[in-house]
Specification:
Elements (H helix, E strand, L loop, with lengths): L11 H13 L6 H4 L10 H6 L21 E3 L2 E2 L5 E5 L15 H4 L1 H4 L4 H9 L6 E5 L8 H12 L6 E5 L2 H4 L2 H4 L2 H10 L6 E5 L9 H12 L3 E8 L7 H13 L4 E6 L13 H12 L10 E6 L2 E8 L3 E9 L8 E5 L30
Parallel strand pairs: 3-4, 4-5, 5-6, 6-7, 7-8, 8-9
Antiparallel strand pairs: 1-2, 2-3, 9-10, 10-11, 11-12
């Protein structure tokens, strides 16, 4: 379903009011995911994920919040970290999350997904440092299995590519895509080898998404040989409650899916209503982690900033501390940064008062002066 007017669960007035939102930002959902919504609860978290909200019209954020344009080599191919090349393999998703940070791919699809596949494979083959290729988009599992298998085959022909990652929301939005397609599982089994694994990075954001069908889909991928990890953004009104987030982390660990990242919601255009301030987010994440075992608390709370993945590592009443978990500039990896607290900061760029002396015992070269 791609037209808000088709959504019979909403009143005629609601559909009319939300049409202005969907005229600006695409809408897509399927019957499976709609069945998870409690329509009697206006604050239902699943509804919050996929049903438009008029607050998206607030002029806040930008279409490319992590400046992916700067690291785009050709349409659909990005190379930010030396060992990782990213393929935007499609501009299609089974459902569109309202907090999506790549809204631009639905606006200008021909500029934002791979058009010249031979050139993309050639680029990877010419860069021996690229041991990882991440397939994303859009959702790679919206591709026909034959096309996805072709991509896996071509990448496996490049000897230095060790890991292929598939980033997907399909386990949440439509696990039957996996359950009902043995050819997909056969492809995973064929190309996830003893020494070169396929990783499937799932995107479960609320414990109610972990239905029996979703768990079955995950188990089938695991049995086929894929390594599964999960990343989730911290979203206001969805999982910004420590008990809810702890339940999600715990249930993921129970089914053998290690939590990988908890991302600060990126300041994409229209995302203000979905974003939690960084320092509040840190408290929520730490309170959630306090409720779960070590296996469930492995996720790093981080921002996918234009300069790298910046982990939020601590705070006091007066200070907040960051570290580059992975920097676009290798010299910055591991760099520790200390800033004066700003409870109203939503993104790294909102901090403008750095300390001149590192407040804890780190080499001075690791203290960033901004």
């Amino acid at each position: 379903m791609t037209e808000i007017e088709q959504l019979e669960q909403l009143s005629e007035q609601e559909r009319a009011e939300l049409k202005e939102v969907t005229d600006k930002f695409d809408f897509r959902v399927n019957d499976y995911y709609l069945s998870l919504i409690d329509w009697d609860d206006p604050n239902d978290p699943i509804r919050h994920i996929v049903i438009p909200d008029r607050r998206e019209l607030e002029e806040w954020g930008r279409l490319d919040p992590s400046d992916e344009k700067r690291i785009t080599i050709m349409p659909g191919l990005e190379h930010k970290y030396h060992s990782v090349v990213l393929f935007l393999v499609t501009n299609k998703c089974e459902g569109i999350c309202r907090y999506c940070f790549r809204k631009r791919i639905f606006i200008e699809p021909d500029r934002e997904s791979i058009q010249d596949w031979d050139a993309a494979y050639r680029y990877v083959s010419e860069h021996a440092e690229a041991t990882n290729v991440l397939l994303t988009g859009g959702d790679p599992l919206t591709l026909a299995t034959s096309k996805l298998e072709e991509i896996l085959r071509r990448l496996r022909e490049i000897d230095h590519v060790q890991i292929v990652r598939i980033g997907t929301r399909m386990t949440s939005y439509n696990p039957y895509r996996i359950i009902d397609d043995p050819a997909l599982l056969e492809a995973i089994a064929k190309y996830s080898t003893d020494k070169k694994k396929i990783y499937v990075v799932t995107h479960f954001v609320h414990p109610r998404e972990l239905t029996d069908a979703a768990v079955e889909g995950v188990n089938l991928l695991q049995k086929a040989g894929a390594i599964i990890t999960n990343q989730t953004p911290l979203i206001k009104g969805l999982n910004d409650n420590p008990e809810v987030l702890a339940e999600l982390l715990g249930k993921l660990s129970f089914i053998g899916v290690p939590p990988y990242y908890i991302f600060q919601c990126r300041p994409a255009l229209g995302n203000k209503a979905y974003t939690v301030p960084i320092e509040q987010g840190y408290e929520i994440v730490e309170q959630a982690k306090a409720r779960v075992s070590g296996l469930a608390k492995r996720a790093r709370y981080a921002m996918s900033h234009s300069s790298g993945k910046i982990e939020i590592v601590g705070k006091t009443e007066e200070m907040v501390y960051f570290k580059y978990h992975r920097a676009a500039n290798d010299e910055d990896s591991g760099r520790f940064m200390a800033f004066k607290s700003n409870p109203n900061a939503y993104w790294f760029d909102d901090y403008d008062e750095a300390v001149e002396d590192c407040p804890i015992n780190f080499p001075q070269r690791l203290c960033e002066l901004k």
